[in-house]
Each structure stands twice: as C-alpha cells, then as structure tokens.
Amino acid sequence: MGLPRFARPKEGDGESSPNLYVANCGPAVGLSYDTIASAFSSFGEIKGVYAADESGARVIVSFLESGSADSAFKALNGRPCPHLGGRSLHIRHSVLQPQSSIVHHTVPVALMASDLNIPGLYLFHDFITAEEEKELLLAVDNRPWKSLSKRRVQHYGYEFCYDTKNVDTKQHLGALPSFVSSILKRVSSSPDINDHANLVLDQLTVNEYQPGVGLSPHIDTHSAFEGSIFSLSLAGPCIMEFRRYTSGSWVRNITSNTDGQIENPDSCTELSRKAIYLPPRSMLLISGEARYAWQHYIPHHKIDNVKGTMIRRSSRRVSFTFRKVRTGPCQCEFPQYCDSQSDR
Ligand SMILES: O=C(O)CCC(=O)C(=O)O
Ligand SMILES: [Fe+2]
Hints:
Keywords: Dioxygenase, Oxidoreductase, RNA-binding. With 344 residues, the protein is an alpha+beta fold.
C-alpha cells in the first residue's frame, strides 16, 4: 500500500470529501486495515484504507461517495465504535493533496549501522548494563535540568549555546562528572572504537525527550566540535534518521530553533534518507562523513515502525552525547557543510 495523497485537513477544510481522516485507529492500536474497512463499509462502498502518517494510529478511509463519508462521520465521530474494539474515533474530512506537495515519509529502519552504509556511523548494542543505566539516570535526575521548549537538558564541561549553536570555550565548567568516568574509560579502551579513542571527550550534553518529542535535522556545528560524537541512549528507544543533500550548500539557519546546529542547506536537489533504531543502552558513534556531511534528527513520533513491528516510545528517552570541543578551525573534507570553511 503506497502513501495516500491525502492531507490532514485544516479546520473547516474538506467538507463533502469522500475521504475521512480517522485518528485513534490503525495497526498500532490493534486494528487492521481490513477490520477498519469492514467497520466503515456499513456506510457505503470503500475505495481503500491507508496509513495517514507513520504513527500507525491514524488512517484515511476513502469512500466512493462523499455522502457515505458524511454518514460515517456523523455516526462515528467522537463515539466509541463497537466494531472497532469500542475505541472512540476522532474523525475529520480529508482533502486530496496536490502531487507536488507530497512528502514521502517512510524510510525503512535498520537495526545495524552497517546496513545503512553511511561511512563513519557505528552502533554498539548493550554498551552499558541495566544497572549502569539506572545509576546514570539517578545521577542526572539528582541534578538540575534546564527546560527548552520541548525537552530538558544538562550540560557538563562546556555549556552548549542554542542561539549560536556553539560552545563558549572561555567558559569551562570543569571536568566531566565522575558518574560518567567508567563510560569514558570504556570508550577509550574499546577496541571497536580505537580509531576515535584518542579524543579526550570534554563536553557532555544530556537530553531528555518525552514520548513523541524528537529533534530537528542538524549537523553538529563543525567549528564547535572535533570529529567523533558519541551518543548513549538510556531509558526509552527512538529512531534516528540521517539525511544528506547531494547538492547543497552551507547556510546558517537564522530562525530561532533550539534543537539543531546547522540546518536547511539551500539549493538542495536530491536527498538520501536512512534510519536506524536506537535501543536503550546502545552507543552510537557518529564520525567522518556521517558526522560532517549527514544531518541527523529524531522524528517526532510516539510509535516507530521498525521492520513491521510498531514500537511505542512509552517512556522518556535520555541521551548522553559526548563530544570534544574544537580549539582550531575545522579542516574537514566537506567544505559545503563546514562553517569554518565558509566565507558567509
Ligand atoms: O539525543 C541524541 O541522541 C542526539 C542529540 C544530538 O544530536 C545533539 O545534541 O546534537
Ligand atoms: Fe547532534
């Protein structure tokens, strides 16, 4: 089933459309497309039932006749539906989207970094034990969090400034805290990470994401941090996507976004997108091309489709991102993404 050409309607849009946008309904809440089609078919002939987005909990029910959609809307909107497990459906009329504005959302989600074929990207499962995870969470929960618009953060070593998307190297907050010493030791003694282990990691950002909260696409500012970035996932899972524009140029995003560091390359023509599943206790290493040329981001989903299994982000996710603050300009091989090598 391809992605439907339907948009989530704006308030008041799409009346008398044969298509309904139905929320709280779909495979993620245990309702198959066949079951949904059968429940709605009592109002008229159904053309198809489609995923409305990647959540798995919102569908488009498309009738042949708009009168059928109106009847279904009146009978089912906001009421428990006995043929759909007693769920209360939230229904709106939907509209057809012009072909040109369709965004193709679904990217298959890999479990192993090697399946993504992005040079410099590695994922180490079970990098820490469940006991260590508990201790790390306890340690950060005993320290003050700083609230951003959608998530909470803590900074160690150096403060990360979200307005400049950089660090103030003159403001050293001190050594990284002792509760991460064993992690740092493991990083530097791990044979798999050896090429990157000579980095003395001196900056730590702890991010806490509530379920459904993601992170906007960005490349960590080249001039702020050296080559390798280590991100440890704790508590809950998420997927991380990577994208690269094959012909893009560096441009500073002037909007006040608290998430990213470099955003929105202009004159982009083609886009490669890949996604990986990050389970709790895994360590992601973003280095080389993955670090300098690919944007990374976390989609704002409550449920991720990982190889056909719907995985609910049921608890918060906390990540520990370790980086090395850069002291000279970046001289990477990707000047088009590099603020040190840009004359803008
Ligand atoms: O939460 C994560 O794993 C990634 C965080 C990140 O990309 C960043 O802080 O730059
Ligand atoms: Fe990042």
